């Protein structure tokens, strides 16, 4: 039986309908002081430090090149340097979203396919790891969850990434967890704001408006009031009401980072 949902409805457009990107920048973002004393603010779990000279998948990459702690602005600067050094310099919309996350805000990332939303999600996870907070990445289907799991293992190191799909559990105590949306929603229903969840990246957020499965995107927003959210989709409509509701529930601002530019063009091969 599905729970009763009190969040506002949002229109989901059949195609991209994002507005202009906000122009402000925060030159010195400060960490957000979490409300209450739940584990969502700061977890006892942190990234596992590899032995000196370790090698293998992920070693020598993001999880190990960047220091495992630091102020948000320092972590963000190192992340931007790493991204540029690996051939993926941050676009303005990515920088804006990461600055908002570093400042402690929720972020709605409503930008086209090919605009680098996954890199923003990775930066958010890295910020959470540096602060000792546990991250969840959620997607609607197991194939996407599995793909993201292996991608993050390559970048953060396999000991830092786990996967929960309902059918399988891999490294479930890791500081970064890839899961189907229903897994996180059921955990939120069981434990509420005391859940060990500090940062949540909800991919394909347009499923919020799905008649049958939307509850799995809605419940974490209701129950995980100490967590920070990154909500991503290329096909979102007007998000004003849900941003206002999320800010009221959690005490954090909810920033919209949207735009119509597609930095990576789509090519017709037919």
Question: Would you kindly provide a written description of the structure presented here, covering whatever features stand out?
Answer:
- The structure is a single chain.
- With 270 residues, the chain is α/β, with parallel strands linked by helices.
- The chain has one domain (62-258): P-loop containing nucleotide triphosphate hydrolases (Rossmann fold), CATH 3.40.50.
- It has 8 helices and 8 strands, in the order αααβαβαβββαβαβαβ.
- Helix 3 (92-102) packs parallel to helix 4.
- It is globular.
- The model is unreliable at 1-7 and 10-60 (pLDDT under 50).
Short description:
The chain is α/β, with parallel strands linked by helices and 270 residues long. It is built from 8 helices and 8 strands, in the order αααβαβαβββαβαβαβ.
